[in-house]
Amino acid sequence: MLATLITAGVAFVFYLLLTFGSGTVGVWSIEELITGAVLSLVAGLVAGRVAVRREGGERGHPLRMLNPLRILLFLVYLVGPFLFAMAKANLDVAYRVITGKIRPGIVRLTPGLSTDFGVTLLANSITLTPGTLSVDVDEENRDLYVHWINVTDPEPSTKAVCGSFPDWARRIAE
Amino acid sequence: MIIDPITFFIVAACLVFFALFSMARIGLGPTAGDRVVGLDTLNTLVVSAMVVLGAAFDQVIFIDVAIIYALLSFVGTLYIARYLERGL
Amino acid sequence: MHIFLYVLFGIGVAFNGLGALALIRFPDVYTRLHGATKCTTFGSIFTAVAVIVYGFARGGTTYQTLAIHAIIALLALLITNPTGSHAIARASYRSGIKPKGAVVDKLEDRS
C-alpha cells in the first residue's frame, strides 16, 4: 500500500514536470491533472512492489529515502565532490587517449555497504570517476570487482581507488 | 535571439560527426562487446544531438522524443547485454 | 550570457569528441567503455545544461517547458548511462572476453 502510494507520488511529480504550462490551474490544465493522477496510480499499482521494498536488515527501511536530509545530502554530493571527480576523470581519459599509457587490471574492493541502493550509487559513481569501471558485483557480501585503468597495487584499499565515495554512499543511502 | 541560432546547428553537426566514429566501431569491432559499446555511445550522442536540435527549432516535441529514446535505448542495451551473458 | 553559452557548448562538444576518439584509440572493450561512458556523459551534461540555460534565459512558457524537458532528458541520461555500461562490462566478462594486457585479474580467480 505504502509502496504503491510512494511510487504513484513520484510518477505524478514527473507527469507534472512534463506537462508544465498546459493550462490555467496553476500552470496545468484540469484534464492533464486528472489524467496524470489516474496514470500515476496505475503505475504505482504495477511497479510499487518492485520500486520500493525493504532490504538488508534494519538499515534498509523502505521510507529512508524520503528523508529531506538525505535528499539534500544527495544533491550536495552531486554538485560537489561528484562533479569535481568527474571533471578530473575526463582530463585523465584525455591524457590516456593522447599518450596511450595504460596498465589495466581488475581488482576487488570491499566497500562494506549493506543496501542495494547504496551499492548501486557507489557502482555508478565508480563508473563515472577517474580510471575505474565497475564490472561485477558479488551478490552475497556486496564486494565490487572494478576494472582499473592504471593499476599501481594489485590488492588496493578501497580508499586508494575511490577516495571518499563509500562514506558518501553510506551517509546517503544507509 | 540570445545566441546565433547557427551555433545549435554547428554543435549538432559535430555530434553527428562523432556518431560516425561510433558507427565505425560498430562496423569494425572484433567482438560483440565492442559493437555494443559503439551502439551505447551512438545512443548517447543521438540523444544530446536531439536536445540541441529541439532548442534550435524551438520544438519541445524533439526533447520528448529524446527522453523516450534514452529510456528505450537503455532497455535495448540491457537486453543485448543479457543476451551476451546467457543467450535468449 | 552569450559567452557563457558558447563556452558550455564548446566544452560539451570537445568532451563528446574525446569520447568518440577514445572509442577508436583504446585496445579492448573495457578501456573503450572507460572513454566512451565518461566522456560522452560529461559532454552531454554540458550541452544539455547549455540548452537549459538558454531556455530559462529566453523566458516565456514555451522556452521554460523546453528547459524543464531538457532537465528530464539529462536526468534520464545520467541514470541510464553508467548502469548500461556496467551491464555491458559484466556481459562482456561473462561471455569470455578477457581484458587485454591485464596486470591483475581478481575476477578470474573467483569463477
Give me the count of strands of chain C: 0
Task: Estimate the global geometry of chain B from the Cα principal axes.
Answer: elongated
| Shape category of chain C | elongated
Work out the strand percent of chain B: under 5%
Assembly form of the protein: heterotrimer
What is the domain total for the residues of chain B? 1
Into which percentage range does the β-strand content of chain C fall?
under 5%
Contiguous helical run count of chain C: 4
Derived structural class of chain B:
mainly alpha
pLDDT below 50 for ≥5 consecutive residues: which ranges of chain B? Answer: none
Q: Which pair of protein chains has the largest interface, and what are the residue counts?
A: B-C, 48 and 54 residues
Backbone CA Rg of chain B: 15 Å
- Structural class given helices, strands, pairing of chain C? mainly alpha
Order of helices and strands of chain C: HHHH
Measured as a percent range, the helix fraction of chain B is over 70%
Total number of strands of chain B = 0
Order of helices and strands of chain B: HHH
> Which segments of chain C are poorly predicted (pLDDT under 50) over 5 or more consecutive residues?
none
Largest sheet of chain B: none
Task: Please explain how this structure is put together.
The complex is a heterotrimer of chains A (about 170), B (about 90) and C (about 110). Chain A has about 170 residues and is mostly helical. Helix content of chain A is about 55%, strand content about 10%. Chain A folds into two domains: about 1-55, no CATH class; about 65-174, no CATH class. In chain A, α4 (about 115-130) packs antiparallel against α6 (about 165-174). With about 90 residues, chain B is an all-alpha fold. Chain B has a single domain, classed as Helix Hairpins (Orthogonal Bundle). Chain B is built from three helices and no strands. The longest helix of chain B has 27 residues, at about 60-85. Chain C is built from four helices and no strands. The mean pLDDT of chain C is about 85.
